[in-house]
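**Discrete fold encoding**
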Amino acid sequence: MSEQPFSQEKRILMAMRKTLAHIVRDLTPTDRALSYPLSEETVQDIRACFELIAARERELAREAGVTSRERPHFADEPRSTSVVSMQGLSSRGAGHD
């Protein structure tokens, strides 16, 4: 798959996911006493669309060689790894002659 169709398809999927999410948010009543305007069948169809979009996004990521563990991180997020300085270590350590 060439780079141009990949990025175009990815943009389409992102736009579809974002638009569906906005529609659901706009239709969700803020007052719990109000009834939800969508039928249960429509809600299930929207969930199915989200699942299909997510599945295709995973396929595209896998084809691009991106693993599911590669996720964006905030700069102030605690790190699970730490950097150890190699400076000052000699090539002859304990136990080496």
Notes: The CA atoms of residues 61 and 67 lie 7 Å apart. The first helix runs from residue 3 to 27. DSSP finds two helices and no strands in the chain.
